[in-house]
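Propose amino acids for all 654 sites.
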C-alpha cells in the first residue's frame, strides 16, 4: 500500500506540473474556440484526475484528509459563493457552469489548488514549469511576429497570421510576459547566493529567459497595439454597466448570471459608447475580472473574490518584512497580475496564471488538517460507490459537452466547404450532445434558415420544396425561440429571431409583422442600440410604412449622431415621399460623416448633385475623419416576394 500511495503522490505532482506547463501553450483546432475551450477542459480533466486520486488515497488510508490553508479557505468561500449566485441569479445554469469564465472554472481552481497541496510538490519545479512555458510562448510569439510561418503553412491558415498566438491573442500573451518578468528577475538575482555549476546554470537560464520574454513583450505589444488592435470595452463603461445592473436588488446581491453578461451590458451601457469604435459590438465580458464578477455574481461574488485574492498576501504581511523580501518576485508578479485583471477582460489564461501563483504563495502556509474517518467495510463500500458514480457522471457530462463543441466545429467546417447537408447533420449532432447552450440553438436556427433560402431561390420551386421550406422555417424559428428561452433578456437572441422573420418577408406571410415585434422586444433589452432602430426602419420601408421608417431612422440617428447610414436612409424615405428639401438636408448630413476618399462619399455627392447641382459645392461639408468605421451606405431591400404565393408561417412558431 505504501508503494501505491507513493505512486499516487508522484502522479499528482506530475499532473500539477503538466497543467502549469500546458495552460499558456495548449490549443486544439477541433472546437469553435481553439484556445479557451481547450484550456478549460484541460483544467476540468486534470481536476477530475486529482479527484480520482484523492478518492483512491482516502480508501487506502481509511479516512478523508484535507489540509486547508488560508488561501484554500478563501477559494472555498469564493467557490461556494459562485455556486449560490449561479443557482439564484442565472437564467441558464448549465451554460453558466460551462462558460469559459464560469462556475466550474472557479470550482475547479479551488479543487486544483486544494489537491495540488497534497502532492508533496517542489515549488521550484512548479515555478520552472511556468517560466519554461512562458519562454516557449515568447519564442512562438517572436517566430510569428517575424512572419516566417506564412510562407510555410498552407493547410492551417490561422497559423499564417503574424499576430497568431497559442495563448489566444497577443494581448493575453503580453500580460503573461509582463507578469512573469518579476519571477525571472528574482531567479536571476538569486543566482549569486548559489555556487559552482548551479550558479552558472541559474544565471544563464534566467538571463536567457529574460531576454527572450523581453523580446516577446515587444512583439506582443506591436501585434496588439499596432498590427492588430483589439476593440475592448473601457473600464469606465464596465463600471457603468455594473452600477446599472445593481439597481435591481437581486442582481446587486447575486448578479445577472455568469453566462449573461451580454444582457447586463446591453441594458446598462451608456449612449456615449455609440461614438466609439465599440458602438456595434456586443461584449460578453467586462473589462476587469472584479467588475465582471461584480456584474455577473453580484456583491456575494465580488466580496468573496476580493477575499480569495488578498488572503495569500495577508499571510505574507503577517510573517513580516523579511519573508516578503525573500519572495519579492512572486509578490510583484501577483501585484502586476492584479493590475492587469482590473484593466483587461478576464481571459482564462489569466485565471490559470493566478491559480499557479496561488500554488507558489501557499508554500509557507500551514494548513488546518481536517480528517473524517471512513467506517470499515460498509463505509468504504458506500464511499467508493458514491465516488465512482460521481466521477462517471462528471466524465460523461464533460465528455458530451466537449464532443458537442467538436461537432459544432465540424459543422462550421462544412459551411466553409459549402456542404449544407453535412453542416446540418453536424449541427443536429451538436445540439443533441448538449441542448443547453443558447449559442447552439442560435446556430442551428441559422442553418435551417440558410437551407430554406437556398431552396426558395431555385429556378423552379416544386410543391415538395414548398413543404421542405415550410418545415425548415418552422425549425429555424423554434430554435431561435429556444435560444430566447435560455436567455429571455438577451437582445442578441431577439435580434436573431427578428432577422429570421426579416429574411422571410419575401417568402412567408406576415413575416414583416413578426420581424417588427421581435426587433421591438430586442430594443427593450438594448435601449441604446442604434442598429436595432435602423433595422426597424428598414422593415418599415419594406412594409411601405414610411412614417414609421422616418421615426425609427431618426431614433437611430439620435442614438448615434454620426450614423451616416441613418441619415442616408432618412433621405431615401423622404425621396419616396417626394420631400426634396428634407431629402437634400439628410444627404448633406450623411455626407458630413463619411470619408472623403470613400465610394460612399462619391455616391452621396452624386445624389446631391442630381438634386441640386448648383448648391452641391457649398452644401457638402468636410468629412469627420475621426469617426469610427461604419458600414457602407445602403437602402432596405424591396421586399418583393420570392415565392408566389408566399408560404404561411407555421402557427406554432408565431
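Proposal:
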Amino acid at each position: 500500500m505504501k508503494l501505491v500511495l507513493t505512486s499516487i503522490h508522484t502522479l499528482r505532482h506530475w499532473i500539477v506540473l503538466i497543467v502549469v506547463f500546458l495552460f499558456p501553450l495548449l490549443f486544439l483546432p477541433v472546437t469553435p474556440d481553439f484556445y479557451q475551450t481547450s484550456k478549460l477542459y484541460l483544467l476540468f480533466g486534470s481536476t477530475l484526475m486529482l479527484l480520482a486520486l484523492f478518492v483512491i488515497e482516502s480508501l487506502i488510508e481509511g479516512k478523508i484528509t484535507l489540509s486547508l490553508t488560508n488561501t484554500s479557505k478563501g477559494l472555498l468561500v469564493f467557490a461556494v459563493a459562485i455556486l449560490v449566485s449561479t443557482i439564484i441569479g442565472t437564467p441558464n445554469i448549465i451554460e453558466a457552469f460551462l462558460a469559459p469564465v464560469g462556475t466550474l472554472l472557479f470550482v475547479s481552481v479551488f479543487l486544483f489548488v486544494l489537491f495540488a497541496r497534497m502532492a508533496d510538490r517542489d515549488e521550484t519545479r512548479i515555478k520552472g514549469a511556468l517560466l519554461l512555458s512562458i519562454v516557449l510562448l515568447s519564442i512562438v510569439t517572436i517566430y510569428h511576429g517575424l512572419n516566417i510561418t506564412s510562407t510555410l503553412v498552407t493547410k492551417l491558415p490561422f497559423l499564417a497570421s503574424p499576430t497568431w498566438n497559442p495563448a489566444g491573442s497577443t494581448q493575453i500573451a503580453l500580460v503573461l510576459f509582463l507578469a512573469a518578468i518579476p519571477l525571472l528577475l528574482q531567479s536571476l538575482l538569486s543566482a549569486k547566493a548559489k555556487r559552482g555549476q548551479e550558479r552558472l546554470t541559474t544565471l544563464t537560464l534566467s538571463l536567457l529567459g529574460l531576454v527572450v520574454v523581453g523580446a516577446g513583450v515587444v512583439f506582443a505589444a506591436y501585434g496588439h497595439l499596432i498590427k492588430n488592435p483589439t476593440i475592448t470595452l473601457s473600464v469606465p463603461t464596465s463600471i457603468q454597466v455594473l452600477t446599472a445592473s445593481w439597481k435591481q436588488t437581486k442582481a446587486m446581491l447575486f448578479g445577472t448570471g455568469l453566462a449573461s453578461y451580454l444582457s447586463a451590458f446591453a441594458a446598462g451601457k451608456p449612449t456615449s459608447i455609440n461614438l466609439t469604435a465599440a458602438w456595434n459590438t456586443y461584449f460578453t465580458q467586462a473589462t476587469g475580472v472584479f467588475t465582471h464578477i461584480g456584474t455577473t455574481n453580484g456583491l456575494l461574488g465580488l466580496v468573496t473574490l476580493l477575499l480569495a485574492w488578498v488572503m495569500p498576501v495577508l499571510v505574507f504581511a503577517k510573517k513580516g518584512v523579511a519573508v516578503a523580501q525573500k519572495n519579492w518576485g512572486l509578490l510583484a508578479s501577483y501585484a502586476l497580475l492584479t493590475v492587469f485583471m482590473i484593466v483587461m477582460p478576464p481571459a482564462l489564461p489569466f485565471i490559470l496564471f493566478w491559480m499557479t501563483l496561488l500554488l507558489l504563495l501557499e508554500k509557507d502556509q500551514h494548513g488546518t488538517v481536517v480528517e473524517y474517518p471512513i467506517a470499515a467495510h460498509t463505509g468504504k463500500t458506500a464511499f467508493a460507490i458514491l465516488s465512482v458514480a460521481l466521477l462517471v457522471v462528471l466524465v460523461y457530462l464533460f465528455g458530451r459537452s466537449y464532443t458537442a463543441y467538436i461537432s459544432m466545429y465540424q459543422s462550421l467546417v462544412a459551411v466553409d466547404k459549402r456542404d449544407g447537408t453535412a453542416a446540418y447533420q453536424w449541427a443536429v449532432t451538436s445540439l443533441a450532445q448538449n441542448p443547453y447552450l443558447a449559442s447552439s440553438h442560435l446556430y442551428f436556427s441559422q442553418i435551417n434558415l440558410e437551407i430554406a433560402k437556398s431552396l426558395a431561390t431555385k429556378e423552379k420551386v416544386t410543391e415538395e420544396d414548398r413543404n421542405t421550406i415550410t418545415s425548415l422555417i418552422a425549425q429555424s424559428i423554434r430554435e431561435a425561440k429556444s435560444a430566447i428561452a435560455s436567455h429571455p433578456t438577451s437582445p442578441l437572441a431577439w435580434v436573431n429571431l427578428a432577422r429570421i422573420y426579416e429574411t422571410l418577408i419575401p417568402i412567408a406571410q406576415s413575416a414583416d409583422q413578426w420581424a417588427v415585434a421581435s426587433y421591438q422586444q430586442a430594443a427593450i433589452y438594448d435601449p441604446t442600440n442604434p442598429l436595432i432602430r435602423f433595422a426597424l426602419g428598414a422593415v418599415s420601408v419594406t412594409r411601405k410604412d414610411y412614417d414609421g421608417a422616418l421615426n425609427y431612422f431618426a431614433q437611430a440617428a439620435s442614438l448615434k449622431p454620426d450614423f451616416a447610414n441613418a441619415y442616408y436612409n432618412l433621405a431615401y424615405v423622404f425621396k419616396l415621399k417626394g420631400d426634396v428639401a428634407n431629402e437634400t438636408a439628410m444627404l448633406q448630413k450623411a455626407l458630413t460623416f463619411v470619408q472623403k476618399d470613400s465610394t460612399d462619399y462619391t455616391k452621396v455627392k452624386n445624389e446631391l448633385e442630381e438634386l441640386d447641382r448648383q448648391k452641391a459645392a457649398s452644401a457638402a461639408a468636410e468629412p469627420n475623419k475621426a469617426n469610427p468605421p461604419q458600414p457602407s451606405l445602403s437602402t432596405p431591400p424591396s421586399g418583393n416576394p420570392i415565392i408566389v404565393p408566399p408560404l404561411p408561417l407555421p402557427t406554432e412558431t408565431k
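The chain has 27 helices and two strands. The first strand starts at residue 63 and ends at 68.
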